[in-house]
Amino acid sequence: MTPYLWALLAMLVSATFFDGFDVAILGTVAPFVQQQHGLSNGAWGLVNTTIRLGAVASFFILIFADRHGRRLLITLTVLGYALFTGLTAFSSSIESFTLCQFAARVFLASEFALALIIIGEEYPTRWRSMGIALLSGVGLLGTITAFLAARSVLTNHPWRTMYLIGLVPLALVFLFRLGMRETRRFQHVRDHRGRQSGWRDLVAGLRIPFQRRYRARSLLVTLIWNCNYVVTSPAITFWTIHAVRNHGYTPRQYGLVVAAGYFFGFLFGAPAAGLLMNRAGRKPTCAGFYLCAAVAILVLFTAPSADLRVQVALMSLTSFFFLGANAATNTYATELFPTEIRATGYSWTTNLAGRVGEIVTPVGVGILADRIGIPAAVGVTAIGPVVGALIVLRYAPETRGKTLEEISAGLDGEGSDRGRSVARSASPIPAPHP
Asked: pTM of the predicted model, to two decimals?
């Protein structure tokens, strides 16, 4: 770990911080926007679904990172997110609000993915999983900050102010990131491959993750992401409704539970996942967090006690396991593809096909909740991470202690000895530090 690598982490934490911040802002301003534009609950649900699709559309930005580099693309994503976040504050109709937030989410999801890819490519082997886990966890800090800021801002200022307060920090982030270098692995690939041009090369590159060589790992990452999102995407949204209807909570009370629970997950969930991935391995850590997340969500929604201390404790455990599951899944999504197609593979499996569960599940839970109630409806989704854990234990490779080159060589069937030879002779980085 060199001083530059520590600085690189500081440059990139803003990506995941603002991911959590922006998603939380939408929740805090929802009552005001809904009232201003006279939207029904169904109409507001459609707005939310449309905005969420921005993360899927980020695929069309990420695919260029394997052609033009990580540094250029992540710099542009900051500018795009800042532009459309600022425009959201001046939107005059629900259509313009939705369009601006959709576009902001496109750039934000791209920035989040590129931050994880950069850390994965630059960090030494023993620090890679921890760096990815920490980046994943900072998103919760952004959520907490948005909830705390909203308590003051929305009491004294219009809802539009929430979309303006982050623009100054974003400007500082842009200036700070000018000192970022291109990753050594991508630079090595580009030096040997040369720059690609033309739409034919681009279309050919889009098909690479589905070639026979990469098909199994693409399917693996896509499946476990969907198993993850089946339970994480509807959890907090429906818990706040559950807290009001079944526990009689006020916004201040459920806000406290969410903020406290997320803070616990941020402090302990990410470091625990990173540590366990290095000590016990990726497979048992990922599967264990998945199974515990399934149990945690069941207990959170079925616990009869309305005591704030009980609910804070349950929310803390749920956030802890959710965050660990996300960190482990992001680690697999980053490690399993070689450098030349890493951004393309990540975008296909994580931001496009992997988000089907995130988009579909809230709708299904809402329909089911009208028939059997929210706790039972959310309880059904707990089967998702259980299936995901079984898939990981059966099909996922163990990548602990291996460089990215060794992982790629092993998945290509070249064996560990061949993998180490590739890593030490062809890799642009120093010898691995397992």
From this structure: 0.76
137 CB-near residues (< 8 Å, 6+ apart): 16, 265, 266, 269, 270, 271, 323, 327
Q: Which residue is it, tokens 């199994």?
A: 216
pLDDT averaged over the chain? Answer: 80
Sequence-distant (6+) residues with CB within 8 A of 236 are: 258
Q: Are 253 and 308 in contact (CB under 8 A)?
A: yes
**Alpha carbon separation from 219 to 46, 231, 352, 361 (Å, rounded):** 29, 19, 12, 20
Assigned token pair, 200: 């034919």
Condensed to tens digits (0 to 9), the pLDDT of residues 374-384 reads 888 888 888 98
Rounded distance between C-alpha atoms, residue 400 and residue 289, angstroms? 17
Question: How far, CA to CA in Å, does 129 sit from each of 136, 210, 234, 327, 385?
Answer: 11, 26, 27, 8, 21
Reading the block at residue 178, the tokens are: 């000018």
Torsion, Cα 239 289 136 61, to 10 degrees, reads: -90
Percentage of the chain with pLDDT > 90?
14
Q: Which letter, b or e, does each residue of 10-22 get, where b requires 16 or more Cβ atoms within 10 Å of its Cβ?
A: ebbbbbbbbbbbb
CA distances from 4 to 126, 179, 289, 408 (A): 17, 10, 32, 26
With contact defined as beta carbons under 8 Å apart, do 162 and 153 qualify? yes
- pLDDT, greater one: 313 or 27: 313
CA-wise closest residue to 229 among 129, 330, 139: 330
Terminal Cα-to-Cα distance of the chain (whole angstroms): 13
Q: How confident is the model at residue 394 (pLDDT cuts 50, 70, 90)?
A: very high
Question: Which of 330-358 are b and which e, b meaning 16 or more Cβ less than 10 Å from the residue's Cβ?
Answer: bbbbbbbbbbbbbbbbbbbbbbbbbbebb
Residue with tokens 């999504």: 333
What is 144-179 written as a DSSP string?
Answer: HHHHHHHHHHHHHS-GGGGGTTTHHHHHHHHHHGGG
Domains and CATH numbers, the chain: 3-401 (1.20.1250.20)
The pLDDT tens digits for 131-142 are 888 877 777 777
| Torsion (CA) 411, 416, 418, 424 in degrees, nearest 10 | 100
Measuring CA to CA, which residue among 302, 305, 306 is closest to residue 318?
A: 302
